[in-house]
Amino acid sequence: MTVQDISKILEELAPLPHAEDFDNVGLLVGNPNMEVQGALVTLDTLENVVDEAIEKNCNLIISFHPIIFSGLKKLTGRTYVERVVMKAITHNIAIYSMHTALDNSNLGVNAKICEVLGIQNPKILIPKKGSIRKLTTYAPLEDTERVKSALFEAGAGEIGKYSSCSFIVEGVGSFKPGDTANPSVGKIGEVHLEKEVQINVIYSFEKENRILKALFDSHPYEEVAYEVMILQNTNQDLGMGMVGELETEIEEDAFLKRLKKTMNASVVRHSKLLGKKIRKVAVLGGSGAFAIGAAKKAGADIFITSDLKYHQFYEAEGQLVIADIGHFETEQFTKDLLVDYLTKKIPNFAVSLSESITNPIKYL
Q: Does 5 belong to an annotated binding site?
């Protein structure tokens, strides 16, 4: 398999367009056409991780965090980023990063946290805005099924657990072919009336290019009339964080102790306890202060995240408990998630879980 082959499999789980605009995801180092001998899955790509890849004969590193976040102007080995990139290039090792594309996946980072903590029926905490689009197009009556089938095959018309969803309206279209036109129906210079249907389908934004290609390829007209609208509808399958419920409610102090043990956290920093039991839990792996308001709005009893500043603990405002367990700690099981996913998708492929320690924060 090539780097590109494996990239396509990873993008089934976490399409790159789902990443946040500020992020740097996908293939960061290496040739997409290179044949892969083995893949090493890690949270961070550091020098010791590259050394481990060399030792294990892995020429692809699949990393959660991107080693290249902003532009590199030099490669002199002056910084740890430059040294990692140089060593990877020297040993012909490709580096692929997933980061917020996987954060936004409903099977990604936060789903894994929910699994580890026993949070049931998790839902997206902050749905990604502008991610649902609506296509409206018009086709001759006799071509309706062909056009619809092509759109469905390209991924249009999927709503939650349902597929092949559309809405059809019959009507009459009119047009007059110009002198240089090549109409499939009608005559040059004459207004033509045609019984047509209006086809309406919605889709997730990353599928737009292939859906429009399917429309143009399947449509009989030389010029295809269509409209694309960005909807404000909530996308239940895409976004940051998750919220769900424990099987049984538990005292705050007991839950925090369980949280510390289960997530292997050295320290749990938390806001004032409220003296009520924990049942509804919101989580957001990595830096999640921006989701405090969403956790309160969702009615969570506790919000688990990391990298909170002093004053952000005040934002609990007596409505929930905020718990900061550490950045690495919230994302540590992401490696296991990716190894399990790739092992199921390509069982005969050599995938290794990195044993290198990459947490930069130490505690006394």
A: no
Same domain flag for 315 and 256 = yes
What's the whole-model pTM score? 0.91
What is the structure's pLDDT at 84? 98
Question: CA nearest 104: which of 11, 28, 42, 6?
Answer: 11
Q: For residue 356, how many other CB atoms are within 10 A of its CB?
A: 17
Segment 215-249, tens digit of pLDDT: 999 999 999 999 999 999 888 899 999 999 999 99
- Our count of domains for the chain comes to 3
247 is in an annotated binding site: no
Q: Is 115 annotated as a binding residue?
A: no
Residue 47, annotated as binding a ligand: no
Q: Is residue 319 part of a domain?
A: yes
Structural domain that includes position 300: 109-126+239-325
* Assigned domain for 318 exists: yes
- Which CATH number belongs to the domain containing residue 316 in this structure? 3.40.1390.30
Who's near 3: CB < 8 A, 6+ residues apart?
Answer: 27, 30, 31, 32, 33, 34, 36, 60, 94, 96
- pLDDT tens for 151-186 read 999 999 998 889 999 999 999 999 999 999 999 899
